[in-house]
Amino acid sequence: MTVDDALLARIDRLESLDAIRQLPAKYSLALDMRDGDAWVNLFPEDVRVGGGKQGRKALRDWFDETHSMQFDGTSHHIGGHIIDFDDPDHAQGVVYSKNEHEAGTEWVIMQMMYFDQYERIDGRWYFRRRLPLYWYATDLNKPPIGQRKMRWPGVPPYEGSFHDLFPSWQTYWARQGKPHDGPVDPPAPLEKFIETMRRGAPLPKPRVRS
User: What CATH number does the domain located at 3-198 have?
Assistant: First the structure.
């Protein structure tokens, strides 16, 4: 690779990072403003919706049904965003999100994160997949202490999947407070931070609708 090629690759990486970082912000704005067209256009045309359905129209139908059924209004606040590139046109990321929901007579707050897979198609970055992982959802005046922290109005409490992507959570508590007696692992290779933390764990299967 020549010096010019290396420089162009670095510029492309910086531009890609910026485009990917905007995706969650655009996702949140479109969702909170209930612009289903803007929201589904953040995904590829062949996006898989579930139940054998595919495509942006099917995803928009899911969007309309879900948000008219469950929420009066929402606000999504984006936190830390980690991005690792698999190759120039594919990347993965973890994004924190703190959300507020007007749900009938209750004001439900939520802490969660997304595990994302991104793909560049014809020069534009899209979400190939978003996997939501939830820690808690509860009325603003009811701290979610204890088990089954997902507490939507009119729905029996259930467990979220906030810690299920990374096995370190279970490993930490399995030691019952005892110090780790093994050596410190080496730093994760470049572009392998998320993959290193996941340690080959399978993807969780979170409950998406309450």
Answer: 3.10.450.50
